[in-house]
Amino acid sequence: MGWMEVGAAEEFPLGSGREIVVGGQIVAVFHAEDGFWAVDGMCAHQGGPLAQGKLDGHCVTCPWHGWQYDVRSGKHLLTGRPMLTVYRVENRAGRLWIEVPETVEG
Ligand code: FES
Prior knowledge:
By secondary structure, this protein is an all-beta fold. The protein contains no helices and ten strands. The strands form three sheets. It has a four-stranded antiparallel β-sheet with strand order 2-3-4-8, with no helix packed on it. A three-stranded antiparallel β-sheet has the order 1-10-9, with no helix packed on it. Strand 2 (17-22) and strand 3 (25-32) form a beta hairpin. FE2/S2 (inorganic) cluster binds at residues 43, 45-48, 62, 64-67.
């Protein structure tokens, strides 16, 4: 897979998240004060839509039952355990690119 372009940076408003599908993966992209971060779009609890969660700094709160994660590390805030896949994001001249790892087929 590798790096894939996912749209204009201005389509990802500051202080919120947006769900995209890239390389067959549901990914939540967040625009924090210091840049863009991307993790699994589905909550590790019961699959809630993390991109619709409230973003506070680097903390996103799942809209379904309130689990909280650091969008930089994918770690659950209470336990400190990494629970979400983290995707690398780059803003290249106003376009966002996300690195999607190879998936093992079959
Ligand atoms: S599905 Fe996210 S907290 Fe339950």
